[in-house]
Specification:
alpha/beta, Aspartate Aminotransferase, domain 1, seven-stranded mixed β-sheet, three-stranded antiparallel β-sheet, 13 helices, 38% helix, globular, binds pyridoxal-5'-phosphate
Length: 379
């Protein structure tokens, strides 16, 4: 059953529909002017010279790791409190993800934990800007420089966010964006890798297109590659969305502020900070932490009964069945990640969410907490 109030919802206007329709009428469906323009506009809004559009954020992570030469015998430090693609991409190149602990406020990689996990095999830090909150790029950048490590930003959840006035995605050697329909802006499926380096950009362009060199014939391949191309339709959609990014992020910020006010009266519930020092947040999702001892599954089930979708963002990667039995992962303990992840609940959050819907969500959550938590004293 589709929920009455969804967890996320793309924001598609006539501008997007017209842009995609124009591509269909043009007959040029791949590797055309929309791709070039989308890449230029993405790069420009991050003050970077190069953006390479790809078929998904996960494909972008894969190519970023390959471009840096990361492979078998190498370790990449990643958060466990993250989307599974982060670990899967590291595995895909034959390297080993090493799971670090997070900061309890920003929910991003804790620099001290990162430092404690460095080994002679460490090659890169894969920094995720979780939920659109920028990570501590000063401290993490220093660690990378001091130890000669590559810095990859996973900015899939953070387009438009800033740390010290600088855009997320413009700090690393390479930065990856994702445009799945639940993100702040979408291309249906899609992603991009941004970089300062012309060499990296050329390698990314080659790898996404079967290892072809730009000057070469269609059937000349310099190295093994992939088909990670993004269609003209997707790029046209992305351009229309990117043009509206500022107002869309404004709507999300306003929705977060409304939740903050509405949820204030639920005792024991932790709301995400609306502002954080040195950071400008790009609101991806609205994730609360339920009061200690609440039965989250039951809360979700009760809310689902009233047609309200919620999400468990995130289930720690190192506890996933696919990872639990890998070497080292079974003994791994990340107490902060585990205790935070147990309590998180993502509420319906999208550009067009109305105050009435948010009021309904709040009422349902309050009801669910009382009924999923019968031993708590009534006030
Ligand atoms: C969405 C997301 C991705 C990419 O997802 P795709 O579905 O492959 O586009 C990667 N990392 C994080 C942290 C994400 O949230």
């Amino acid at each position: 059953m589709t929920p009455r109030i969804p967890l996320s919802s793309p924001d598609i206007t006539d501008a997007e529909i017209d842009a995609v329709t124009a591509v269909l009428r043009s007959q040029r469906l791949s590797l055309g002017p929309e791709l070039e323009a989308f890449e230029q506009e993405l790069a420009a809004c991050h003050d970077l010279p190069h953006a390479v559009a790809v078929s998904s954020g996960t494909a972008g992570l894969h190519l970023a790791l390959l471009t840096l030469g990361i492979g078998a015998g190498h370790e990449v430090i990643v958060p466990s409190f993250a989307f599974i693609a982060v670990a899967n991409a590291v595995l895909q190149v034959g390297a080993t993800p090493v799971f670090a602990e997070i900061d309890p406020v920003t929910l991003n990689l804790d620099p001290a934990s990162v430092e404690s996990l460095l080994s002679p095999r460490t090659r890169a830090l894969l920094v995720v800007h979780t939920f659109g909150v920028p990570a501590a790029m000063d401290a993490l950048g220093r660690i990378a420089r001091r130890h000669g490590l590559a810095l990859i930003e996973d900015a899939c959840e953070a387009i438009g966010a800033e740390f010290d006035g600088q855009r997320a995605g413009s700090f690393g050697d390479l930065a990856v964006f994702g445009f799945y329909p639940n993100k702040q802006m979408t291309t249906g499926e899609g992603g991009a890798v941004l970089t300062r380096s012309p060499q990296f950009a050329a390698r990314l362009r080659s790898l996404r297109n079967q290892g072809r060199q730009p000057s070469a014939d269609w059937l000349d391949h310099a190295e093994p590659g992939y088909n990670y191309r993004l269609s003209e339709l997707a790029c046209a959609l992305g351009r229309a969305q990117l043009a509206r990014l500022g107002p869309m992020l404004g709507q999300r910020q306003a929705a977060a502020a409304r939740y903050d006010a509405l949820l204030d009266s639920i005792s024991g519930l932790d709301r995400p900070p609306l502002t954080l020092p040195r950071r400008s947040i790009s609101w991806f999702v609205y994730v609360v932490r339920l009061p200690e001892g609440s039965d989250r599954d039951q809360v979700q089930a009760v809310m689902a009964q009233s047609g309200i979708a919620t999400g468990r963002y995130f289930a720690p990667i190192h506890l996933q069945p696919a990872w639990r039995n890998r070497t080292g992962a079974s003994t791994l303990s990340l107490p902060l990640t585990e205790s935070i992840a147990r309590r998180t609940l993502a509420l319906p959050f999208f550009n067009q969410v109305t105050i009435r819907q948010q009021l309904e969500v709040t009422t349902a959550l309050r009801y669910a907490l009382t009924h999923a938590h019968p031993s708590s004293p009534r006030t």
